[in-house]
Design goal:
The chain has eleven helices and 13 strands. With 343 residues, it is an alpha/beta fold. It has two domains: 182 residues, Rossmann fold; 137 residues, Rossmann fold, CATH 3.40.50. The chain has a seven-stranded mixed β-sheet, with helices on both faces. A four-stranded parallel β-sheet has the order 7-8-6-11, sandwiched between helices. Strands 9-10 form a two-stranded antiparallel ribbon. Bound molecules: 6-O-phosphono-beta-D-fructofuranose.
């Protein structure tokens, strides 16, 4: 009987458990054995697994996070780790692997396919929604809804206290959460990594708005947004195994500049991991379930080196390398729509 492994890598995100459940249910239905690889690529480096069966996945559909655990381990970073991954693959008796992750995890999967582990299928995840070759990644819808609710809540305080509130949301390279939560939550200014921040313009928009009688404003900023000619604002400079710095702090910087330049009291609220936690929305549960079932179908049909993806309302499959070759950044047509409501 053929044996499938499944791992979840990179930042956790709502919808991972629905994918795991779907892969396990479909694999068992098709007569495969299935094993959970713990903590992303780390589990393959360290040969660390957990059993998966009907009981272990029972009740996980509405749960956030991942029952398999995750890590940002990059086997291409440490000498010998790729060989360790290949050894564990053999020791685990795997015939195929489902790798669930974002650009980093799937980037490793894509390299491994070329480096002697061809039987891998990818499933796209990230709250940032920045993976190419899929219209949406699961996790994004949940994060978007959490961020929108937070903006609604911030509105009430901003309005009552006549303040400006800067809401810092996640989004490392792409401002999908910022732009969509900003539109949905009626933000007065939205700042995204794709467009450098012009602080003069931001303050002008706010001043004009206040001049027409409004006494409060909401500014939504993605954590990866940068000032014109400025560097990314980071919590620390140390790089992770994929070369990323820990972001955070742009909201604080922005709030202090806005307060100084406009004279209006300005506060900041950093949403952080609240956006990544908690129960997935129905959209993310359904998307995760559809992607998980399709991943097993690909394995059954021996279509390896592929990633399952959403195209319109259909689940399709695309080459893994297409998913990781370029990031999907915010569509400027959407940004132009958001701009109609600035100020
Ligand atoms: O990639 C998803 C994401 O949530 C980014 O928006 C953010 O920059 C990053 O992960 C934070 O990762 P961590 O929780 O490991 O600091």
């Amino acid at each position: 009987m053929a044996r499938i492994g499944i791992l979840t890598g990179g930042g956790d995100c709502p919808g991972l458990n629905p994918v795991i459940r779907a892969v396990v249910r479909k694999a068992l239905l098709e007569g495969y054995e299935i094993v959970g690889v713990k903590n992303g690529w780390k589990g393959l480096v360290e040969n660390d697994t957990m059993p998966l069966n009907l009981n272990t996945v029972s009740g996980i559909l509405p749960k956030g996070g991942t029952i398999l655990g995750t890590s940002r381990t990059n086997p291409y970073k440490t000498q010998g780790d790729v060989e360790r991954v290949k050894d564990s693959f053999k020791k685990m008796g795997l015939d195929a692997l489902v790798a669930v992750g974002g650009e980093d995890t799937l980037g490793v999967a894509s390299k491994l396919v070329k480096d002697g582990l061809p039987n891998i299928v990818g499933v796209p995840k990230t709250i940032d929604n920045d993976l190419s070759a899929t219209d949406y990644t699961f996790g994004f819808d949940t994060a978007l809804n959490v961020a929108t609710e937070c903006i609604d809540r911030l509105h009430t305080t901003a309005e009552s206290h006549h303040r400006i509130i800067v809401a810092e949301v996640m989004g490392r390279h792409a401002g999908w959460i910022a732009i969509e939560a900003g539109i949905a939550g009626g933000a007065d200014v939205i700042l995204i990594p794709e467009i450098p921040i012009d602080i003069d313009e931001v303050c002008e928009i706010i001043k004009k708005r206040h001049a027409r009688g409004k006494t409060f404003s909401i500014v939504v900023v993605a954590e990866g947004a940068q000032f014109k000619d400025g560097d990314m604002v980071t919590q620390e400079q140390k790089l992770d195994a994929f070369g990323h710095v820990r972001l955070g702090g742009i909201g604080e910087n922005l709030a202090s500049l806005i307060e100084k330049r406009t004279g209006f009291e300005t506060r900041v609220s950093v949403l952080g991991h609240i956006q990544r936690g908690g129960s997935p929305t129905a959209f993310d549960r359904v998307l995760g379930t559809r992607l998980g079932v399709k991943a097993v179908e690909l394995i059954k049909n021996k279509k390896f080196g592929r990633m399952v993806a959403l195209a319109g309302i259909k689940i399709i499959d695309v080459p893994l390398e297409d998913a990781v070759k370029a990031l999907k950044t915010v569509d400027m047509e959407l940004y132009d729509i958001a701009k109609v409501f600035f100020g």
